TrEMBL record:
<feature type="transmembrane region" description="Helical">
    <location>
        <begin position="95"/>
        <end position="115"/>
    </location>
</feature>
<keyword id="KW-0813">Transport</keyword>
<dbReference type="InterPro" id="IPR005821">
    <property type="entry name" value="Ion_trans_dom"/>
</dbReference>
<dbReference type="Pfam" id="PF00520">
    <property type="entry name" value="Ion_trans"/>
</dbReference>
<feature type="transmembrane region" description="Helical">
    <location>
        <begin position="64"/>
        <end position="83"/>
    </location>
</feature>
<keyword id="KW-0812">Transmembrane</keyword>
<dbReference type="GO" id="GO:0034702">
    <property type="term" value="C:monoatomic ion channel complex"/>
</dbReference>
<protein>
    <recommendedName>
        <fullName>Ion transport domain-containing protein</fullName>
    </recommendedName>
</protein>
<dbReference type="GO" id="GO:0005249">
    <property type="term" value="F:voltage-gated potassium channel activity"/>
</dbReference>
<feature type="transmembrane region" description="Helical">
    <location>
        <begin position="278"/>
        <end position="303"/>
    </location>
</feature>
<keyword id="KW-0630">Potassium</keyword>
<keyword id="KW-0631">Potassium channel</keyword>
<feature type="domain" description="Ion transport">
    <location>
        <begin position="59"/>
        <end position="307"/>
    </location>
</feature>
<dbReference type="InterPro" id="IPR045319">
    <property type="entry name" value="KAT/AKT"/>
</dbReference>
<keyword id="KW-0472">Membrane</keyword>
<keyword id="KW-0407">Ion channel</keyword>
<keyword id="KW-0851">Voltage-gated channel</keyword>
Length: 366
């Protein structure tokens, strides 16, 4: 009975998540690549590496940025499409861009792991150079107050189009789901379904905002030549749609996007002008790819053949084995980190050496 309680506790223990500790992971990397045990470069403190270098596994600030990245990813299309009629209390949320600007500065001090050597890099010069060559430009452009620049430059639509750069932040949401998929404390099927639903909702949300934006590109005198301006649902007509309640306009646009994606439209909403026809052709072509992606992922969930799911099952079995044999905390951490290292490295050392001649293989082992 006591063993079962311990086993259940270990499976839900925070310290037993598959991320493992950075120190033990680096220790295994040093062994994997033949580095000395006394290598001072691998002796890294828990929270900081060297002179003000931030632990990439820190959760507090990462969670804050993740939440604001969700907001930014969904609000950016809304801000672009419904700019001419967005409620003031939503426009005021533009001020949160300062949060992402702070994150841009902090990224110059976040340690990273080299993808080739799997060694943790905490040299500030290397960190800054890597970030400057990578996503720094897009992250910085995403912090610009494009709406203010749009008004200052005579309301040029090209300037407002740069607001789409902020969608680059959606990669943080993707990274979050990637970590959730590897965490054995969270049901894998639940995580994948939430991810697929999020992808579907985000695509239809973005399409809805673009549909409405296309309708506002024509002057009010020609609004009858747009999909929403010519729309009649029952006894309700969308004449002068710019004066209709914001949420009614958004829900109508979202309905148009969903029925177009599912190709179950009843003909009550349809493209009217050339611009709308062109976008719908592109949108439906994209939906074919999206549908294949969703169906493929659902099939993989049923078959249970994904690499991540096999890794989770192996990790759960490994934790049960260590509980039964009452292994110490240090050896447990090293074993889990080694399994994580094999999963992330995308190759198995033994399988690669199998294709090498025995004489050469003996030299490599030595």
């Amino acid at each position: 009975m006591g063993g079962e309680i311990q086993e259940e506790f270990e499976l839900n223990e925070v310290d037993d998540n598959i991320n493992g500790s950075v120190g033990s992971r680096l220790f295994l990397v040093s062994r994997e690549f033949g580095l000395g045990k006394n290598n001072s470069a691998l002796r890294i403190p828990k929270d900081c590496y060297g002179d003000f270098v931030i632990n990439p596994n820190g959760r507090c600030w990462a969670n804050i940025i993740f939440l604001w990245s969700i907001y930014s990813s969904f609000f950016t299309p809304l801000e672009f499409g419904f700019f001419r009629g967005l409620p003031d209390h939503l426009l005021n949320l533009e001020t949160v861009q300062i949060v992402f600007f702070v994150d841009v500065i902090l990224q110059f001090f976040v340690a990273y792991r080299d993808l080739h050597t799997y060694k943790m890099v905490y040299n500030r010069k290397h960190i800054a150079l890597r970030y400057a060559k990578g996503s720094f430009a897009l992250d910085l452009l995403g912090c610009f107050p494009w709406d203010a620049l749009y008004k200052a430059t005579g309301r040029r639509e090209v300037i407002r189009s740069f607001i789409w750069i902020r969608l680059y932040r959606a990669r943080k949401v993707k990274d979050f789901f990637h970590k959730m998929e590897k965490d054995i404390r969270i049901n894998y099927l639940f995580t994948r379904i939430v991810k697929l639903i999020t992808v579907e909702l985000y695509c239809t949300h973005t399409a809805a905002c673009i549909f409405y934006y296309l309708a506002t590109t024509l002057p009010p005198a020609n609004e009858g030549y747009t999909w929403i301006g010519s729309l009649t649902l029952g006894d309700y007509k969308y004449n002068n749609f710019r004066e209709i309640d914001f949420w009614r306009r958004y829900i109508t646009s979202l309905y148009f996007a969903i029925v177009t994606m599912a190709t179950v439209g009843y003909g009550d909403i349809h493209a009217v002008n050339i611009g709308e026809m062109i976008f719908i052709m592109i949108y439906i072509s994209f939906d074919m790819i999206l549908g294949a992606y969703l169906i493929g992922n659902m099939t993989a969930l049923i078959v249970k053949g994904s690499k991540t799911e096999r890794f989770r099952d192996k990790m759960a079995d490994l934790i049960k084995y260590m509980n039964r044999n009452k292994l110490g905390k240090d050896i447990r951490s090293q074993i889990k980190s080694h399994l994580m290292l094999q999963y992330e490295s995308t190759y198995a050392k033994a399988s690669i050496l199998e294709d090498i001649p025995v004489a050469v293989r003996s030299k490599v082992v030595i």
